[in-house]
Amino acid sequence: MSRFRPIDRKTAYLLPPSVEDWLPQDHLARFIVEAIEQLDLTELTRVYAGRGSAAYHPEVLLSLLVYGYATATFSSRRIERATYDSVAFRYLAAGSHPDHDTLASFRRRFLEELAGVFLQVLELASEMKLLKLGTVSLDGTKVHANASRHSALSHGHIVKLETQLKAEVQDLLATAEAADQADIPDGVNLPAEIKRREDRLAVMAAAKAKIEARARARFEAEQAAYETKLAQRAARAAESGKKPSGKPPQPPTPEPRPEDQINLTDEESRIMKIAGGGFEQCYNAQAAVDAPTMLVVAASLTNAGNDKQQVQPMLDKLGALPASLGTVDALLADTGYCSANNITACEEAGVEPYIAVAREDHHPGWRERFTEPPQLEADATPMQKMAHKLKTKLGRMLYALRKQSVEPVFGIIKSVMGFRQFLLRGLEKAKGEWTLVCLAWNLKRMAVLRQKSVPSA
Q1: pLDDT tens track for 128-143
Q2: Cys-Cys crosslink for 405: which of 137, 251, 342, 435, Cβ 3.0 to 4.6 Å?
Q3: Is 81 a member of any domain?
Q4: Is residue 3 part of a domain?
Q5: Element (H, E) at 409
Q6: Which domain holds residue 223?
Q7: Residue 337 lies in a domain
Q8: Do 304 and 251 belong together in one domain?
Q9: Which of 16-20, 62-66, 237-241, 257-261 is most confident?
Q10: Cα–Cα distance, 161 to 152 (Å, whole number)
Q11: Are 288 and 372 within one domain?
């Protein structure tokens, strides 16, 4: 007698099976369906109804996209294929098979509406007793744009290439007009070579114009800051009656810098320094994470590589959250966000800032963890007060939450969910896609938190 289980692929079922019976009760796909069924998708349903043949319900398409992003299945073609191959995707699609064009167009069309869905999911988490705002960790991570850094052109390089290509065009025209064609290499098509260079010149002229427009916008902002500094310097001189110390600020220039760049594939992305060294074409993805639950409560995206300017926009997002979610009373951030303006912005928003003023020693002495710092001077600056607060036992305890809340979220999104590059191009579209990623993370995290909150039998 054989010791193996019999193989039988031919016997028909006496009763048709239900796809629902093939999924475990605690499966993520089940939770996503349950959560999305509780959301108000009236706006999506009204706009998406359209004309002609019956459309797929937005609930089905949204569920497929959210589960896809939660399980490293981002491509609309892969999601379409999974509705045939995967039990979970079949369950989400309710036995239907939306094609990749439908999924891709739905994702592009309703990127702005995802912000409302994201907020509804947070309210659902609050109703489930999984979220109560208090301490929030803020951090950013560089995510590759859907463009190569080798497709970027700098203003200085464009100027050099224009000179070279114009000289080549003139040389080719002169060769074409010459009566003696003997020195033309075999296989050379002069009209095609001329057109190729003229097309490249047109592309570079458009790129150069956009770089110059950016430079003018930057000049206006820098000019306003320059005039403010001059006014402050003059006020200090009038108050003290002495010439201000230090060098006067340098006036900005409207001309583009040689290193100013634009990417021909995604012109709104930027070359940024990435962790581990090197530079890549990226966007800077920001997330404010509830420290106890690791749920993303606010998300944004910028093409600025520096984090210092991201505190105020995130405070505005946190301040706009519904009161039912609770109140943010503390903000944790690393030294990349540290500035006097950011400390003031937090205090004006009623949020206690815990922003590192300098990089911490990875191996401090054991006594430092159990001692309080000396008394602070009465005339201490906001920056000195911040440094003192972070050295207290309470400050060290709170700041330690940052590494175990927001950093793991980015690690899981990139390494487990597999999201390391945007599919969509342009800042606004990439911003919507980042919201979709954070939405998928929140539902994935809520499924885990709900299991932990349910007492075992």
Answers
A1: 999 999 999 999 999 9
A2: 137
A3: yes
A4: no
A5: helix 406-415
A6: 153-178+185-263
A7: yes
A8: no
A9: 62-66
A10: 13
A11: yes
